[in-house]
Amino acid sequence: MRYAYYSGCSLHSTAKEYDISTRAISRALGIELEEIPGWSCCGATSAHVTSELLALALPVRNLLLAQELGLDTVVCCAACYSRFKAANKAMSSDGNYRVQVSEIVGRSYSGEVQVKHLLDVLTNEYGLDALRAKATRKLTGLRVAAYYGCLLVRPPKVVDFDDPENPTSMDQLANVLGAEAVDWPYKTECCGGSLALTRTDIVLKLSRDILQMAADAGAECLVVACPLCQSNLDLRQAQINKRYKTDFALPILYFTQLVGLALGMGWRELGLNKLIVSPKKLLGAKTWV
Predict the structure, then answer these.
(1) For residue 272, what are the contacts with CB-CB under 8 A and spacing of at least 6?
(2) CATH assignment of 2-117, among 3.30.540.10, 3.30.70.330, 1.20.1050.140, 3.40.50.2300
(3) I need a surface site. Which of 57, 114, 116, 187 has the fewest CB within 10 A?
(4) Which residues in the chain show pLDDT less than 50?
(5) Cα 201 to Cα 207: distance, rounded to the nearest angstrom
């Protein structure tokens, strides 16, 4: 299995552990990722609220680079995934946009490159049975809340991946690795991602509600697929506790880190040491570590 890999800005900076764990598990599973040479920012989250053409041209430029590799493209960031899928939808269905964007980027593009999220690749292409067979640890006793956020599965006519109201792919992934995915109602609620710097008050309220629902459901940690969601829920926990007089200490893991744990990988190998809310105490209490 070989894919063009679009890491995006977050995975090279604030979400470095997402990139580290993505590459680590891909190597272990025999999935070859070829990073798109000369990739640039896809415009999330600012471009699509300032210029519709810019919001299309930025991902299209990267898709054209991927097209030169002749490979389907894998994306990990839910925001990047959303912008790539939206661009493909517009380029394949709207001739006016296609002409204007082609003039901007200097080449014609009609949405030919297939774009997939890594979660989709693992669950539907690599396969859950194959993943189970590769696992050397069974994550028994780990209760996780699978948090998809608002972008990964929406809008359904654009992303066409999992149920937009009750997605289950990450739950199935956790369960097949031996963990227990709890049943909870906030798996697709917004954390306030793009408001992290401009309206921190809103982010704290939305993220507090998500953490509370996960805790009420008995989760010991949250598993995410978006660097913006991870940052809000992980980085802001101390602020949330101070403002709302709560005592949350829920580690926020990427699903790639969960997979890596099941594959027997180590702490630094998965970037677990980079998380703000350390999972060391939680994982140290498990017999399989």
Answers:
(1) 17, 253, 257, 279, 280, 283
(2) 1.20.1050.140
(3) 114
(4) none
(5) 10
